[in-house]
Design brief:
Largest sheet: 5 strands, antiparallel
Strand order of the largest sheet: 5-2-1-6-7
Strand content: over 45%
Structural class: mainly beta
Shape: globular
Oligomer: single chain
Order of helices and strands: EEEEEEE
Radius of gyration: 16 Å
Length: about 100
């Protein structure tokens, strides 16, 4: 999967309501805006919107030398999730990376 990546984030802490710990990472990328028209909702615009993909926690450090924004070919894995198969970013092949 090729994307225009704009950043990587990792968040961890304790849930306010659940009081359970969380720790996750996401890759932020640009995707073309898709106008939508439904009976009760409309979305119009031009350009791109920010989308997120879940990442393996171990993959975060692999992105430390990337100069963002960057065109990346993502490497992914699949794992079982609560709602079926979940795709996680596990690495990348870069067109642009820091020397």
């Amino acid at each position: 999967m090729k994307v225009q990546a704009i950043g990587v984030i990792r968040m961890s802490g304790i849930g306010k309501e659940s009081k359970k710990p969380y720790d996750f990472a996401q890759l932020l990328y640009l995707r073309p805006l898709e106008p939508t028209a439904k009976e009760t909702f409309q979305l119009a615009g031009y350009g791109y919107e920010v989308a997120k993909l879940d990442m393996e926690l171990a993959a975060v450090s692999k992105f430390s030398r990337v100069v963002f924004p960057a065109h990346l070919e993502l490497e992914t894995i699949q794992e079982p999730g609560r709602s079926g198969i979940r795709v996680l970013v596990s690495g990348f092949k870069a067109e642009k990376a820091a020397a």
